[in-house]
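To close the chapter, one final illustration. This time we ask the reader to focus less on the individual chains and more on the assembly as a whole: which components sit near each other, and how the overall shape emerges from the parts.
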Amino acid sequence: MAIMEFFGCSFIAFGPPFAMFRHTVAHDPVRIIILIASSFFWLLSLLLSSMWWALLKPYDVPLAWSVGMSIVLQHILRFLVYRFWKRVEWGLKLVADRDSKTGVVDNKKYIIAYVSGLGFGIMSGAFAFINILAESLGPGTVGIRGAGDSPMFFVTYALTTLCFILLHTSWNVIFHAGMNKRNYGLTFIVIVSHFAASSLTFFNKDKLYWASILPNYFNLLVSGWLAFRCAGGRLYWMKSEHYHRLHQL
Amino acid sequence: MTSSAGDTGVLHLVEDEKSLEWVLKTGPHSPYIALLYPEYFTREIIYQFRDSGRVNGVLMMREKGANSTSLTSFSTDSSCPNDAFGIYNATSPKRCQKWNAPGNSLLFENLPFPIFFMNNETESEKLIKCYDSFNRPVNGTARSWPLCASQLKSFMLAAINTPTCLRRSAVFNMNPGAAKVCDPLGDQNIVASLLPKNATQSYSDNSIIVVAARMDGASLFDEISPAADSSISGLVTVLSIMKHLGKVREQDQLGSGSSLKNVYFMLFNGEAFGYIGSSRIVYDMGEHKFPISLSNIRYFIEVNQAAASLSNDSYFIHQSELSQSKELTDLLQKNGQQLNLNLTLPKSTKLGLPPSSLHSFLKERADLTGIVITNHEEEYKNKFYNEIFDDEEKIGYIYGDKSVFSVQQNIAGLSAALTNSLLELLGAPPSSHVLPDLDTVDELLHCYLESANCSIFRELLGQNQAPKAHATYVGVVHSPTSLSVVTSLVASLYVGSLVENITVADECWKLQKEKHYFWMNGSCYDTTLINATEALSPAFLLDNYDWASGKYSTWTESIWQKLTVRIFIKPSKLHEIMTLSSGIVVLVLSMVLVRTIGGARLLAVSSKSDSHDGHEWTREQL
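The assembled structure is written out below.
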């Protein structure tokens, strides 16, 4: 029953983002607004990327050019998201103050960055994965051409999608931190990390699935850790003496 | 016939006893889709598939190898075609004489799984390749998942039988016809009169000759029913006779003074399914809805399977029992001999009348003098009767081959011999006698068997046609097949009279309604003498017809959805369960993790010194 494959892969790719949504966003209407609005910005970047790809199509350029341009566009949009929320922050505060339960902008600076990153990520994951999921509903799986095509395709794709959703979330936090503190090194790290992650996925073409998943998850760990730190998080068992050294990140 | 979601199974090539056993008993990955060559498409094997419950579908391919001479017979019609609709009742020994010995009756069997035919070599190769790469057992042991599988969809809406599906179709619906689940089989018969009927006079008894052939074929598979010997051979013979006689008429050489006043040509449709067309004409005659009646007919001459291509081939004249005419058969034999054609009477007297449209007429008038001319004496020469392989190759037809013993030569010779006999019967002088028209016969055979984009059809229809043969299956009523449409035009061309004073198409079309003028082939033809009559079984016209009586054909065709076949790799059940479980684990784990690490926790950081304006942060405060 390929419907099992469908549900299995949906849960893998969208399970953690769903959990994050449910526990950190769903209870607060303002956060939901931020999430949806940021998703829209990602869609804009997709639109622009596809226009670029369409322009290049007659010239038979390798896919890498379009992927690179898409990454650049996504970050431009990410920057616009950043500016947008900065501008709109006061409005959100107005709305938020009315409801005493929310505290989205009080002293949790990177909530906006986190939520908008999650929105970015979920939308990018959805567009990457939904049509593959739809195919997985059929009775068959990948592999009829032999030559290394693996029935593990769907699961691999799901894992990669999950990775990217979480990566987008982390990148957004790091990006906002970099912009806020004028530490453009951080911004640069985000762009490099994104390029690295996307480049690694080119290994999938040659069926070297492990070569793309493992390094990308490592990338995710590093970015996640960095985001955690940028947002001011500390593992509570860290001693304060190390504080000054660690903050050099 | 199949579930609406399609039937899926693992592909397995049945090419010997072992692989058959595998599918039926020993293979561990049932259900299977059986892939096979025509030699294995037999009644026994299909029944075994049905009874095993392990087969979800059958994919049949073309014969293996380019030289397709290994298949000696393939027919799914009954071994006694249409025996229930003939003149012999159940107790008569002449009823079922195994005319179609290779017939396995699968055409009429209710099978619970879809069966598809792969006509295209490239597609068959893909199937074999997929099977070899993934499924072929190695040293008798099964391969492991993933395996090559196939899904066949041929969902039919109708079920059980005709009275049931008609009743279901008649259910009231706001949208008329929306509840329909089946349609009666039917099309049009083509009836042409050689001479115009005198408006005041009606025909006296025994004054008309009927020359008939059937134009439909059948097969188990949609759109492939070449019926080369089964019907096209006879059809082309009669069309050629029509052309000969039409020409003689135009030259005013028909003569008069004979007691036989006219020739009616009848081309029946739907004969393969219980003599639909001929039974309807006989019924119409009884209801006085037909220009002539049964009593008007003196001779009924039918040309059945007429493809002959060897030097010692002959044609046989089968006669009805109650009324035989030595005069007629002698005449035919004489005219045949003059053209070096062997026309003989069957030696055995125990032989009944072979399946033919003549049966419909004899049922209502047992003393009608009728003959059926075929290329076989007892058992059918045609071992591929009413099935997909009854094509130009099997009858040995080669377009343009006009050598002495070619199919074209034999059919043209038969047609000329019959024409000359008819001319004598009509009282025409010996100078009017014709010679075999090889070109027309050759071209007609090409048109009907190989490509509809031939010169004759193109000129009649005025535009290019698809370069493949028209299917001969009768189809459903109210939807005339391309075959019957083009055949009526051919008949109009041959038997219609040229209107000489009209040379412009528009003038001709203006008079279409009033005078039945038709513009084709660059000229205007008066087509009053050619008519199409509805070929629908009387069972669907009579109120309270007793469906169980078996008097008339009651075949219907189910409404069907798009027919598709696809192949793919199927993962093992284990793989799917593992994927689902991993997904559930990931979901649950993440719900738990996020909850405990928690929104509040993760994001309740830096409680000190966040200011509203991020730009005032200092380095230490990261």
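Chain A touches chain B through 50 residues (CB under 8 Å). The helical segments of chain A are 2-24, 29-56, 63-98, 111-136, 153-180, 184-201, 209-230, 243-246. With these observations in hand, you are ready for the problems at the end of the chapter.
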